[in-house]
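User: My instructor asked us to take a sequence, write out its structure as tokens, and then describe one feature of it. I'm not sure where to start. Here is the sequence I was given:
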Amino acid sequence: MKIEDFRNPPVDYRPVPFLSINDDIGEERLLNLAEEFLDKGWGGLFFHARTGLITPYMGNRWFNLVRSCVKRYSELGGRFWIYDEQGWPSGQGGGQVTWRGPELRNKILKCIPAERGLPPAGTIRSQVVSSGERKRKWNFVVRVMPAGWLPDLLEPTAVRAFIESTHDLYEFHVGDEFGSTVPGVFTDEPQYTTHFTLEREKALPWTDRLPGEFESEHGYSVLDNLPSLFFDTGNYRKVRYDFFSTVTRLFVDAYSSQIYNWCEERELKYTGHYEWEDSFLGQIHCIGSAMQHYEYMQQPGIDHLGRGLHNPWVEKQVASVASQLGKERVLSETYGVSGQSLSFHDRRWIGTWQFAHGINFLNHHLSLYSLRGERKRDYPPTLSPHQPWWRHNRVMADYFSRLSYILSRGRRMVDVLVVSSLGSAWCEYRPSDQGAVERIFRGFSELTENLLARQIDFEYGEEFIMARHGRISGRKLLVGRSGYRVMILPPMGSVKASTFEFMRDLVDAGGHVILVGERPTMVEGERSPELARFAESLPLVPNERDAVCPALKPFLPITPAIRRLSGADEDRLLVHRRKEGPVELLYVVNTDYSRPMLLEIGYPAGSDVKELVPLTGEVRACPQVLEIDLAAGDGRVFATGLEAGADGEWEGTIGGEISSEPIQGNWSIRREDPNVAVMDFTRWRQPGGEWSGLVPVWRANDATGKLTEASEFEVRYEFDLEVGVELDLVIEDARRYDVYVNGTRVPSDTGEWWLDCGFTRIPIGGVVKRGRNSVTIRGRRDSDLSIEDAYLLGQFAVRVDGRKTPLLIREDPRSTDVSDIRGAGYPFYAGTVELQCEFDVNASRGTPWIEFDELGGTYAEFHANGRELGDIFWRDYRLNADGFLKPGRNRIVIRLTNDLRNLLGPRHWRGGEFTGVNPNSFRDDQGWTDAYVGVPLGIGGLRVTWRDE
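Assistant: Let's start with the prediction itself. The structure tokens for your sequence are:
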């Protein structure tokens, strides 16, 4: 580990966002974004075609832009990552592959009751099936999906066609930068068929060559055993296990291995993630076994969408394969669907949780090129220069870059292997009944949670990977480069034959095998008396936290010792240990969203302990026994064996509270950006027709969308004005409309824009009046034109309570309460406000701190008495004000910057704040309210607190 690289991580350790290529792309703006991304701390971009793309995908202009962008990144030292599809899922070649012929199209196997007459087209077997006491004849039918649907990714020639349509073309145009400026290729959600197709059709994946491959691999015919795949008849568990082992192998060989080898030959990294990784059922439906695919990725990855912490086994399974097979970097496509109010605290909370589980490369979802039309609702947030907080993005980028560097070094220190029970789920799966699969997955997930809740770290063992890379050495089971003293089997009825051998050999070598919940009795879906006898000799513990963890502790001598003293619950603590040469790292994370945790960490006497601070790049000397305040969502890194000197001394914990007094007074409010009024209700008509009533804009868009191409329409927005002010009107795609304000036509192509270059800014101060005003746009319907909200900009306050049209009034820039200033006339404001107040401080003993309870915004910069006090952007809402405050009169200034949530919405969801936002969230009839719903803007509970020294 190089401390200088920790302080200033190389570009390859920096987060990289998707750049949504979603409009008619301009070269100059694209290159400016490249510079912006690097300037704000990112390492480059993933060039991702998405909703709204107008520039022809993979055409000459596309590759001209690609070459220009790669050239600029080469000059700047950044990275241009290829994204392999137009949208997702990957494998379609922008829709080209399936048009090459039906043999390349996705196929499914259905079981249909036989009727009189000829069997349906595609029938490969007709058979009488005995199920229980009932006999019935069934047709087993292969259905070929239509062109334009998914390709058959179990078929190597279909994947070869995909590579020819995409990868080979990128090589032709920018192959000279492969392995340097162009580091790799991202694949997104490839699948052998969709989860929803198999659910709806009660079907199984299929391909033409499956029967031959199955018989070659297992020595019997799958065609003779098709009933066992759909009914509990015959040797059904064995047939199902063999079926999914073959299907998974075919998918790995055709897709993952073929693309992996293509990348390996060109010194590229194959990365991205597969569909439906987060459950056994999803993997059975879509990919077979996620972990088997990760073996064939130079840089394996997952996605983590939504604003929350999900099932940790998704992160653990990919990190386990990476650790075992020596893959240094593990990617997560993260933050998508979280909504525009995703805060820096949310980003740290989610990111540190993932890093504790083994992720070390954040792929930010999503940075929009354009907000125009439906694009702004494409699974927000946009993490881009559109955001008011963008100038502060480097704070987060540097933080995760340093963590990424640290947590990519050496190996994870783990002694426990948990065998995946996915193979047992294969045995039990049938399309019409998935309950047994869910039960097996539930037991597996509960064991995962139980171990993590008691800080027992572990990795997963995928049985096919274990078979290929496992061996016994000393008292350990080695899988690749990782060694385990203890093997745990979760509740599972069947094991792979090689796993059974490992179990016996590990026990004979002096290692430990522990069974949880039940004893396995089958080998690859068949009863095994030998396994049953051996399992009787192994310890069996209930799948309960207080049973599993004590059974393991004697085998796991762990230093340093960690003890929770107070605060957030123990099960919110995650521990990650690593070793690189003489350096041992300890990463501790408090996953609680709002509560801090007090920890004691005890190192052996004589240890040279240092803290590596990812926020600043500092290295601090520490005592051997540490008491640390671990803030909500925070992660801290400690190291021994580090040769580098320290930048500073250990700061210790924050002292206890002596007294507290609120900061009260008359606050002044100064906007640094124009205020905004949103007009998101409207009337519409066709020329000469009657105006509709006031309806949400999206309803007017739906109504005009039913018009024939080129039909004319009019849309009218309304607002009320109580004060004479200069106003600007903002209309999306204004150049495509005739625009009238109070009946007077105004320019619709001014060359000025606001927020996004597709949002035209039109001065209208000379044509507005006091009272009711109207804005009318007239246009012709076409496929790329959508009716969107309109905006007013200027020096005013906004009232919307109980109204569908905004009322603009005079601002009163004073308030006695700044916990939420939306009510002072800023319900839609997106930008920076300066809050300023004079207040009295009474002398007290101890150290003064500025503290507060809630940050209604993203980034707060504090000044006290004319001096910079510090910035706050995540929980631990306090700043040491010693030497800044004085007895008597003081002045505090807070520059508070928010996000696009109140401006772009969703604004009318009655259920509170979304944590999973998709395009339908903006138009959901079930949860709609005409009232405006947003998030606070302000500082809540601001006070001076005196604490012990």
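For the description part of your assignment, you could build on this observation: The first helix runs from residue 3 to 7. Try explaining in your own words what that tells you about the chain.
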